[in-house]
Design goal:
By secondary structure, this protein is of the alpha+beta class. It folds into 3 domains: 33 residues; 31 residues; 117 residues, Immunoglobulin-like, CATH 2.60.40. The protein contains 5 helices and 9 strands; from the N terminus they run ααααβββββββββα. The chain has a 5-stranded mixed beta sheet with strand order 3-9-8-5-6, with no helix packed on it. A hairpin with a 5-residue loop joins β5 and β6. The radius of gyration is 26 Å and the shape is elongated. The chain starts with a helix and ends in a 5-residue tail after the last helix. Bound molecules: copper (II) ion (CU). The site of copper (II) ion (CU) has 8 residues, from β5.
Amino acid sequence: MLDFLFSGWGAFWMTLFMLVPFAAVFYYILRRKSIVDPTPESTARAKISGVEVGWLALVLMVFAGVNLASLKYMPTLRTAHAAMRTDIQSVDLTATSWSYDISSRELQAGKPVRFSGRSNDTMHGFAVYHPDGRILFTMMLMPGLKDPTSLIHTFEEPGTYKVRCLEYCGVAHHTMRDELVVVASEGSAKLAKGDTP
Ligand SMILES: [Cu+2]
């Protein structure tokens, strides 16, 4: 069931479903004012402004609350935190039609990786997929930039992560693939063997 919600059609039906309450309220007001009682509104002005202020306050509170609660999920903040760590791994990559030159294809889980990418000829992408098929992130590599495009990501689990180009770059674009192998970090490997940390 949950898997369906994360598919394209799932998202489509969920969006439609979320519009149902709005449609119902809209219909209710329309019907009340055009069929049940078409006379001018009898509610006192003062009462309406009180309701409006309360409503506005509620909306602002929800807005501020949701934003504050979701701050920690912002990629920029995660990146800033990861960039401060001293055990960061660096990977330089260069895209040339239709392959990648990657400085290291073996990475450790649990330690941030800074990907710095360039393109030698045209626009390329560098998208990394979790072994279960989820896309983790994608980078857009533009040719002719002075500095590399960079992004920091921390792999949580060991496994083979597929890389694909997600920017159309010519006739062999679909063959532009690679792989990264994420291994358990030295620290976690010790723990797995049952040693004390
Ligand atoms: Cu491509």
